[in-house]
Design goal:
With 117 residues, this protein is mainly β. It has strands at 14-15, 20-29, 38-53, 59-66, 69-73, 79-81, 86-89, 95-99, 105-112.
Length: 117
């Protein structure tokens, strides 16, 4: 492992996943760090959107730090989630997330196993 064990969030490079708009993610824990899971800090600007998609072999947990999100799981009705909400997304479950504003949506995302091995 070549990464620092202690880092400031702003020192970690950002990326925007495919099918996402207005999104700025930082990989906090990668498969290089831990083989069983991956942890990401996500930030979606108001109106930012993760298009409907699924992770076939990955369980995803989404914890809302701040802001508000509209979350649609499978064929369920949209649910508005705010700070301290946890969203559990089993493998293969279609999901979609939109940042409702007025403030950015900030999330901690955990994937098991890692999405980017």
């Amino acid at each position: 492992m070549n990464r620092k064990l202690i880092e400031a969030l702003d020192d970690i490079p950002t990326y925007e996943p495919p099918g996402h708009s207005g999104t700025n993610n930082r990989r906090l824990v990668s498969s290089e760090d831990a083989r069983a899971f991956e942890m990401v800090h996500g930030r979606l600007e108001p109106g930012g959107h993760a298009a409907r998609h699924a992770h076939d072999g990955n369980y995803q947990a989404m914890y809302v730090l701040s802001g508000r999100a509209e979350v649609i799981l499978a064929e369920e009705e949209p649910v508005v989630c705010g700070p301290a909400s946890i969203v559990r997304i089993p493998p293969g479950t279609l999901h979609e997330v939109t940042s409702l504003g007025p403030d950015p949506l900030e999330l901690i995302l955990v994937y098991a196993p890692p999405i980017n091995p």
